[in-house]
Amino acid sequence: MREKNTKELVDILGKTHLTDFNSYCNENKESMNLDADAFPVYIKNLLAEKGITQQAVFLNADIPERYGYKLLSGEKHTRQRDIILRICYAAEMSLGETQRALRKYEMPVLYAKIPRDALLMIIFNERPGSILDVNNLLNQNGMEPLRTSGLQN
Predict the structure, then answer these.
(1) Do 64 and 152 meet the contact criterion of CB atoms below 8 Å apart?
(2) According to the model, what pLDDT value does residue 43 have?
(3) The pTM is what?
(4) Half-sphere exposure for 114 (CA within 13 Å, toward CB)
(5) Helix ranges restricted to H, the chain
């Protein structure tokens, strides 16, 4: 069974009665975030599909390897959306895959009405180069670069 997008689920919910809630959950469990492992499993599956190692992602994202492994295993959690964006960009994720990863990490998705987010959306679509290139583009447009973890391992 294929995963339904949010709009499809909202449409179904519009026709669902309270007494049918359990049926809704059972019928749509593939489309719902039901566990804390949603993000690590999603990222690891994408990396396997793309043939990219976690080590390469951390190197390209300019994130300390030990910290990155802890994030992707679920051992550590960050509140810095920029860290997740760095990982997604370094993992060569599309904009759609990135938005999904942010949702699975329970972070706000990139929002087209916020100028920095809008530029990041274009960057994810066009893939102009490395994280350094991304930060240069953000700086050139008077915006904060993607922050690092602050850890020096």
Answers:
(1) yes
(2) 92
(3) 0.79
(4) 10
(5) 6-14, 21-27, 38-50, 54-61, 65-73, 81-90, 95-104, 115-126, 131-140
